[in-house]
Amino acid sequence: MPEVELPLIGDAARRARAAARVLRTLPTATKDAALLAMADALVAHADDVLTANAADVEAARAGGTPDAMLDRLRLDADRVAGVAEALRQLVALPDPVGDVVRGSTLENGLQLRQVRVPLGVVGIVYEARPNVTVDAAGLCLKSGNAALLRGSASAYRTNVVLVQVLAEAAAKAGLPADSVQLLPAERASVGELLNARGLVDVVIPRGGAELIQRVVRESTVPVIETGVGNCHVYVDASADADMAEAIVLNAKTHRVSVCNSAETLLVHRDSPLLGRLLTALADAGVTLHGDPAVIDAAARSGLSSVVPATDEDWATEYLSMDMAVRVVDDLPQALDHIAAWGSGHSEAIVADSASAIGAFVAGVDAAAVLVNASTRFTDGGEFGFGAEIGISTQKLHARGPLGLPELTSTTYVVTGNGHTR
Amino acid sequence: MPEVELPLIGDAARRARAAARVLRTLPTATKDAALLAMADALVAHADDVLTANAADVEAARAGGTPDAMLDRLRLDADRVAGVAEALRQLVALPDPVGDVVRGSTLENGLQLRQVRVPLGVVGIVYEARPNVTVDAAGLCLKSGNAALLRGSASAYRTNVVLVQVLAEAAAKAGLPADSVQLLPAERASVGELLNARGLVDVVIPRGGAELIQRVVRESTVPVIETGVGNCHVYVDASADADMAEAIVLNAKTHRVSVCNSAETLLVHRDSPLLGRLLTALADAGVTLHGDPAVIDAAARSGLSSVVPATDEDWATEYLSMDMAVRVVDDLPQALDHIAAWGSGHSEAIVADSASAIGAFVAGVDAAAVLVNASTRFTDGGEFGFGAEIGISTQKLHARGPLGLPELTSTTYVVTGNGHTR
């Protein structure tokens, strides 16, 4: 069925497809039992996992990988226990498969039900962190999908052991043996996955902008984009001073390396808070990149180190202790700025004016709009959805945190008693 | 924002993007008033439309276009009145924009609402029939989207007049002037539309398998696939004889040129109905393509003209008075056949056995599964959804008839009072 040769992954994909046909029919209890067995097996085999991981870390260190990357790659007993616990928590989440999304009886007596079904085979392409291997496998299985995991080459030894442990435990608990498979780490296996149309139902890239762009460009399999967040906080003229300072600081500095951290601050020209916000950010260690009005205000506040901002600053997801700051003439100009430069992830307004809030919510086109709250709240856990496989920044299928229901499709089941047209 | 040059459509796409930012904020009443004005304008300018259409038809005839295609291209006063009436009927349908899909108050007091919003700019690529121009424009506007329409070159004169009439009426009623635009008919404009990432939010191809394959292969803009239907009817051993005959005949012969007509009949080896079904189909003028068991049964029923079926028959969407017929050993073999050859559109079972029905519904992965009903019911109008822009055969975003809610995305609106993490 796929139109291209798949020497590296074709066999795995065909076996995943067969597994998916069984998985879609399994009751929740069977899937939950498998998740618990997988968690137990991870804990039981933690030593094997850590041995393989130590080899990956050592090879990466020898290859000159920087410390921050090594930390993302490294597992320890606590981290293994943590991912095992995350599998157990999936058991408590409702199984979306079989949910009736809508239903009715038509005038002619036909009974119509739109029922949630698994997507089928889900391919996930991700970078260093091996905990994604476990999280993704758990989310896919709970939602009745077979998983094809393509982790990074740097974590390959770790991932081999993790997937072997998970797959064996799942099979013993009654799931098909090919429900979770690790794909080879060769570079070409990503390209094959992206072109396995007819065998793979969706590819979800988890990683930086470069990976996501490649996937979007090359893939003939449908893609759910995740994770690039060029997020803004707009401080309206009506904003409360303490609230604005707390939200701006939190959105920027609480955790700078994540997609829901803020990158640009937009301040209304009439707001008296600009100097205070700049000082608070500078005191917190943030490097400011400002337009001329910001540079002026900073100088008046005794701050001399503001970098002149260029278009590149408005476009950049820093993921660091840097923030671009711009003074806008009014709310429409803030909306124009966000429309021009935002990535459609999370946009926040701090304001006390109901009309300003209403215009901002109506005018911003993003996965999440936050009113008097930090951008950091855009998160499956914070939203109460449980685990997430990423945060979608696309408009089709799912936008925002991707939980279990977002890993399903639907089928219309139409029941008659001999109905013809 | 798009990474490629768009000499043919770039300007239109940028203006559509600006229009979409206004459209998303308009109340239902404004959009409905525009739809009524558009309907009135079409009727008022019917002569202009028909003059342009006569020129298109004449040019197509001179170019050797076959009569069946000419009929799809041709408008008359009744057809113009029909599409105008379809616009009026959109007014009665609920506006999905602003619907709260889910909402809750989190433990920390944050108020979470998932709200329907328009997709933004919708590109539609379609073939001869100019009524699609009006239907697509109406569905996009009612759901708050700007429409970029790329009809076929053969209908270009007609489409120019239709879009001019629609856009003028919409603008007079308060919609942005660029809410509906026709793209140039040059072949390259399709390629540009498919690569207008960042300006166009989704492309929906309406047409044959070749068009849809091209769109899927080339597009970096997200795509909703529509319309290829290799649909099956499975007649179980438990099927009622009259019901089976009525459903098989209806699914095959009611309208052969549409995607929800049946192409393959699968009959359980233990069913006594094979001869009767073959005779009824042959009597209705259907050319049968059968496996050896079917050819034997046909001979016993005095039918000599069954064509031996090959894999090509199982794969083909005939869209004609042809039907492939296979005898299967049991229901699992029917499921295997459908999984191997079906296009995921509509699959029907005729059976009285509840366990057979249950296994079929659980095992078939398609947009619609029909139990004791004809495949012809998979249709937005039949399902009570009103107008549809096509029938999606993909699993992401929307599966089955694409009505107004399927032309929307969502935004999470998160309201706090100074919430930080």
From TrEMBL, chains A, B:
Pathway: Amino-acid biosynthesis; L-proline biosynthesis; L-glutamate 5-semialdehyde from L-glutamate: step 2/2. Pfam families: Aldedh. Residues 11-270 form the Aldehyde dehydrogenase domain. Gene3D superfamilies: Aldehyde Dehydrogenase, Chain A, domain 1, Aldehyde Dehydrogenase, Chain A, domain 2. Keywords: Amino-acid biosynthesis, Cytoplasm, NADP, Oxidoreductase, Proline biosynthesis. SUPFAM superfamilies: ALDH-like (SSF53720). It catalyses: L-glutamate 5-semialdehyde + phosphate + NADP(+) = L-glutamyl 5-phosphate + NADPH + H(+). Signal peptide: none annotated. It comes from the Bacteria. It is found in: Cytoplasm. Its EC number is 1.2.1.41. InterPro entries: Ald_DH/histidinol_DH, Ald_DH_C, Ald_DH_N, Aldehyde_DH_dom, G-glutamylP_reductase_CS, Glu-5-SA_DH, GPR_dom. Its main location: cytoplasm. The keyword Cytoplasm applies. One of its GO terms (molecular function) is glutamate-5-semialdehyde dehydrogenase activity. NCBIfam families: PRK00197.1 (NF001221), proA (TIGR00407). Catalyzes the NADPH-dependent reduction of L-glutamate 5-phosphate into L-glutamate 5-semialdehyde and phosphate. The product spontaneously undergoes cyclization to form 1-pyrroline-5-carboxylate. HAMAP family: ProA (MF_00412). Belongs to the gamma-glutamyl phosphate reductase family. This is Gamma-glutamyl phosphate reductase. The lineage of its organism: Bacteria, Bacillati, Actinomycetota, Actinomycetes, Geodermatophilales. The gene is proA.
